[in-house]
Amino acid sequence: MFAKHPKIAKEFAHATPNIAALPKHVKKRKGPAIPDLRKIKQK
């Protein structure tokens, strides 16, 4: 990442001081990514 996008890599390295604490995999969401707007009550 430092070779192709050094600015983004610097920001990422600064924002995450402990790389070892990051998860190797992210669990998939069970529900839809976009909430169903019909189910949300309108005020």
Description:
- With 43 residues, the chain is an all-alpha fold.
- It contains 1 helix and no strands.
- The protein is elongated, with a radius of gyration of 18 Å.
- It starts with 5 loop residues before the first helix and ends in a 28-residue tail after the last helix.
> Main sheet, how many strands, which sense, barrel?
none
Report the principal-axis shape.
elongated
Mean pLDDT score, rounded? 81
Order of H and E elements: H
Total count of helical runs of at least 4 residues: 1
Helix content: 10-25%
Relative strand content: under 5%
**DSSP, total strands:** 0
Low-confidence stretches: none
Secondary structure layout plus pairing:
Layout lengths: L5 H10 L28
Which key terms come to mind for this protein?
43 residues, mainly alpha, 1 helix, elongated
Summarize the structure.
With 43 residues, this protein is mainly alpha-helical. The protein has 1 helix and no strands.
